[in-house]
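We modelled the chain as a single entity of 461 amino acids. Its sequence is:
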Amino acid sequence: MTDSDGAPSPAGSVAPEEGATGAAGDEPTRGTGRLGPPPWLALVFLLPALLFLGAYLVYPILFSVYRSLWDAAGTEFVGLDNYRRMFTDPATFVALRNNVVWIVVAPIVVTLAGLIFAVLTERIRWATAFKIIVFMPMAVSFLASGVIFRLVYEQDPESGLANAIITTVQDTVSPSAAYPDANPRSDAPLEEGPGGAYDVTDEAQPGERIQVPLVGVRADDLPESAENATEGPVAGQHEISGTVWLDFTRGGGGQEGVIDPEESGLPALEVQAVRDGEVVATAHTGADGTFVLPDLASEPHVVRLAADNFTEPYQGVTWLGPTLITPAIIGAYLWVWAGFAMVLIAAGLSAIPRESLEAARVDGATEWQVFRRVTVPLLSPVLLVVVVTLMIYVLKIFDLVLVIAPGSVQADANVLALQMWRVSFGGGNDQGMGSALAVFLLVLVVPAMIFQIRRFRRENQ
């Protein structure tokens, strides 16, 4: 290649093309210099999403603000009166108090559970199966979860899983009464004693044999060891003997107050001999209902059927009562969301540099110290994301409270979202007040959302 004077150009140089810029800073002679499609084309592709957001997000928010300034029927402008009534309504304060409990307790408990599960999945076999089981409740709707836990929290241990477990443990540690429904006939020689016990009306002398009839025990509730009642052995000089039996003959017949051949003894009943208000001897009835009270002084004694024989069996915890209803619903929320927290935290754990953990172990740190001073600080961004996300969802909790809480205690378990629904559609028919509650709930949610968005932007920079 040669220059304009016919001299060769330097090797590798290329002559400038026509229309190219000359010296630095010169304007291009042609074209705009913009890369990519024009801006209006981007708006065309964004238009469906913008319309969707406008119809399903922006318009409902603006209309709720507008509707909150009108009365229940929407015919009279009342200004801020709905907000004034909202903050003077006791039900709103109960709902707000419960929302505070939810915000403080639920996100922390769920995050801790997710952290524990995530750490465990790194140390156990079949970790994938464990994750699937824990995450599975996320696939169940909140309505279905509420129905499940309404059954779990039933008071009757026969149908409520929680109380079935509790009563099983209780009966293992401290067996329940043998015959809670047993009682004497009105004409039986028994009278009510202290604490629900039954005393034989007349005092018994050592060497005497007595008979104690009871009714009120279903044949199906009799122990398998029960046998036909007998009169029992003859009492010794310093003994009182007798029989406690079910004074009822199947199919009718028999004589009241008399041991009939078809009547069953009541085994495992505690019988006491009482003298001057103190228990001096104790015995338990055998399979045929007989007992012997030994080593008695030569004085009359009161024969007592101990109160422990007739106490009502332990029925478990009143989960759906006004005291425990909110913690019970938080337990259901934990079951649903623990899998979500576990998955996010497990992803954060997998991103932690293993060199940092190994360096701490080499320096002599225990596993607990490694977890507390290395793992948790490195996981703090993920943990914060989980907590803030759960706080946003907790503020909007509605389904579980509506389904789990019975109508009698729903006011005690009330939250803002449920109060909004009850005021607007659940019988209140005051959509002005309901819209005010919706706006108030939005105001509470927005700060957490802004905080979350700013965090994401900082991480992406």
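As a brief sanity check on the tokenised model: The first strand starts at residue 190 and ends at 192. Residues 1-7, 9-29 have pLDDT under 50 and may be disordered.
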